[in-house]
Design a protein that fits this description.
The protein is of the alpha/beta class. The protein has helices spanning 53-63, 101-108, 123-126, 141-153, 156-161, 185-198, 217-226, 239-248, and strands at 8-17, 20-29, 32-38, 41-48, 73-78, 89-94, 165-171, 176-182, 207-211, 230-233, 251-257, 260-265. Strand 10, helix 8 and strand 11 form a beta-alpha-beta unit. Helix 1 crosses helix 6, helix 6 (185-198) packs parallel to helix 7 and helix 7 packs parallel to helix 8 (239-248). The longest helix has 14 residues, at 185-198.
C-alpha cells in the first residue's frame, strides 16, 4: 500500500490508557482546502486530503456535468505553492465547451463536505441526460461479500490514521482496479472518476464501486456520471439516493457487512432469479 505524499501529518499527543499516561506520536489524516480555478476564476473550494489532486479536479468537472470527455480539458495543472506552503490550487482551462464558470459559481463556491450544495432536487441531475448503458454487468452475491475486506486491506492512510473515507473500483471478477482515500467521501469518488476520465476508461459500465461510508445522493449521482452500474456501501443510503438510483436503474446496495447486504435498487444485477430490466433512464 502506497501512501500519497502529504496525506498524513504527525503530531504529539498525550495518551491515557487505564491510568497510565504517556506522550506519543500520532498520525492524522491531512485536511486542507483545494481551490479549483476554471479559466482563472475560482469555481469551488473543497476540503480534501492532499493526493491525486488532478484526478479530484477532473472528476469534479465530470461528475458535476461541466465536461463529458478528457479532450475538453486543455490545461490541468497544480499551481506552485505560495509562501512555502502546500500546493492547494488546481488551474483548469477548457476547450470545445460553452460552459461559463460565472453561471455556476454560486452553486459550487461554498461546497466542502457536500458534493451537491446548491442543487435543489433530482431535477438538477435529470436535465443533464444521465443514463446507464446496459452492458450486461452482473455481480455474484458471494463476490460482493468479499469486497469490504479487499477495500480495508488496501486503505494505506486509514490504516495509519483511522480517519478517512475510501472508494474502491472492482471489476466483474472482484479484482481491485483502483482505490482512493479522502477526508470527504464525495472526494474519494471524484478521484476515481477523474482517474477513469484521464485514463480514458469511461464509461465504467463493467465495474462495481464500494464506498466506506453511507450511500448518499451525491455519491449516487457521481456513480451515474461515471457510468458505474453497481454501487455498494457499508452503511445506509439516504432516501433521496434510493429515489435517484431507482429512477436511473442503478444497483444500490447498503449495509454490505459480513454475509449480509440490502438491495435498494436494481436487484437483477446480483440476484439470478430476478428478471432483467432495462436500466436506461
Amino acid at each position: 500500500m502506497r501512501t500519497p505524499e502529504h496525506s498524513i501529518q504527525l503530531t504529539q499527543v498525550t495518551e491515557w490508557d487505564d491510568g497510565n499516561v504517556r506522550t506519543t506520536q500520532d498520525s492524522l489524516a491531512a485536511e486542507e482546502p483545494l481551490e479549483i480555478r476554471l479559466g482563472g476564476i475560482p469555481l469551488t473550494v473543497t476540503m480534501r486530503t492532499p493526493g491525486n489532486d488532478l484526478e479530484l479536479a477532473a472528476g469534479f468537472l465530470l461528475t458535476e456535468g461541466i465536461i463529458k470527455t478528457p479532450e475538453q480539458i486543455a490545461v490541468l495543472r497544480i499551481n506552485p505553492p505560495e509562501n512555502g506552503g502546500n500546493a492547494n490550487v488546481v488551474e483548469v482551462e477548457l476547450q470545445n465547451t460553452d460552459f461559463d464558470p460565472k453561471d455556476l459559481q454560486r452553486n459550487f463556491f461554498a461546497a466542502s463536505s457536500c458534493g451537491i450544495c446548491g442543487k435543489a432536487s433530482i431535477n438538477a441531475i435529470r436535465v443533464r441526460g444521465l443514463h446507464l448503458k446496459e452492458g450486461g454487468f452482473r455481480v455474484d452475491p458471494d463476490l460482493l461479500c468479499r469486497l469490504p475486506e479487499s477495500l480495508r486491506s488496501e486503505q494505506a492512510v486509514f490504516s495509519r490514521t483511522g480517519g478517512l473515507h475510501a472508494a474502491a473500483l472492482f471489476d466483474g471478477e472482484g479484482q481491485l482496479v483502483v482505490l482512493r482515500e479522502d477526508i470527504g467521501r464525495h472526494n474519494s469518488v471524484d478521484k476515481i472518476a477523474g482517474w477513469a476520465l484521464l485514463e480514458k476508461k469511461l464509461p465504467l459500465s463493467q465495474h462495481a464501486m464500494l464506498v466506506s461510508g453511507r450511500g448518499g445522493f451525491e455519491i449516487v449521482q457521481k456513480a451515474l456520471a461515471s457510468g458505474i452500474p453497481v454501487l455498494a456501501s457499508v452503511s445506509a443510503p439516504s432516501s433521496l439516493a434510493v429515489k435517484l438510483a431507482r429512477e436511473f436503474g442503478l444497483t444500490l446496495i447498503g449495509f454490505l457487512r459480513g454475509r449480509r447486504f440490502v438491495i435498494y435498487s436494481g436487484e437483477f444485477r446480483c440476484l439470478a432469479s430476478s428478471p432483467v430490466r432495462d436500466s436506461g433512464a
